[in-house]
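Escalated from tier 1: flavin-adenine dinucleotide holo job.
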Amino acid sequence: MDYRDTPEEAAFRATLRGWLTENIPAGWDKVEDPEAAARLRRSWHRTLYQAGYVGMSWPVEYGGRGLSATYDAILNEEAGNLNAPPLPSVGYLGRAIFTYGSEEQKQQFLPSLLSGEVQWCQGFSEPEAGSDLASLRTTAKLDGDHYVVNGQKMWTSGGQYADWCMLLARTDPEVPKHKGISCFLVSMSEPGVTVRPIVIASGEAETCEVFWDEVRVPVAQRLGEPGEGWRIAMTTVAYERGPADIGFIATYRRTLAKVERMAAERGLLDRPETRKQLARAYVRGEVLRLNCVEQLAARVSGQQPGPEGSVAKLLWADAEQSLQHLAMDILGADELTGVESGWLSSYFTSRPVSVYGGSAQIQKNIIARMLGLPR
Ligand SMILES: Cc1cc2nc3c(=O)[nH]c(=O)nc-3n(C[C@H](O)[C@H](O)[C@H](O)COP(=O)(O)OP(=O)(O)OC[C@H]3O[C@@H](n4cnc5c(N)ncnc54)[C@H](O)[C@@H]3O)c2cc1C
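Tier 2 regenerated the structure:
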């Protein structure tokens, strides 16, 4: 396969690059106040949407442009190259809604998801159900034309800013655990929803505990059939783990260039260990890039994402964490004494990459099954 741009893709890339240069909010990565950062993310989402850059590969009838996934990848890549704010991640949630939703649900939820008018969070994990998600204990009991939800979710990213939640809850405790789960689309402003932000090691509260106490959810807001929650969750995470996003590579390369520059400034480029670590970091990035491109090619040719997304997730976590670790080695005390800043926070932000979206060990289990290795 030829991975170079077609003439149409090259023209799109050039227009996009011009648009990004004019529209990336100046100083966005210096905003420290979490509320201001959340407002900036929302407004960036709307700006991209108004320019037609959100959901380009979605079907036209749901507000997309019906383009191939290559265009989303070009956007990711150019946004990464030009240090744009993170792009809105509407793809996997949208995929679940347009695969399993009723026509009314698609009309109700997809346009506002795409435009950024409504922000979503993902309420899957619980205190005792992360890797073993199917053990979740939050219940949804049918009561007339409503379900009544009780339980606790954990690590709900962006829960404090979200308007709606895609929630998994047990609707049938009598059947095997994977079969008794259903999926719901629930407004976070329903009475009985309590959100408590969790501050992680980087000092940011990007994720939350969410308590669900007698929350009433109309039956019409169940996504898919009763008991179909597990299948929906697996579709969602397959797209989430997908060819990660190719923009990560561009951001990774920029960070690697900065780390190399810091090593040069400290006279470390002659040190064999540093040279070896920098070379390894480069190779890790290239291996991940080729893996992403291969998966993108499979996606463009119509294949659904499958367990191979676990390979990208594993490579991504390894590349990101190793690079941040190398930056710490090179900086020594300079970050603590204020010669450089921001690297410690990036280091801590890289730590949970091997946990969210499924831990590294779980990805290895999935890859082992894919390879047919003995259990
Ligand atoms: C920053 C952050 C954001 C997150 N955002 C969200 C979100 O928005 N929505 C959401 O629903 N969840 C979210 N999560 C939750 C995430 O998906 C879980 O943390 C993850 O699946 C691991 O579950 P756990 O934390 O319960 O750890 P556990 O499942 O308790 O695992 C603990 C350790 O045991 C290992 N382990 C467990 N089982 C096995 C096994 N079978 N084989 C080998 N090793 C195993 C794990 O790899 C891990 O090292 C987020 C997590 C973090 C840290």
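Residues 242-370 form a domain with the Butyryl-CoA Dehydrogenase, subunit A; domain 3 fold (CATH 1.20.140.10).
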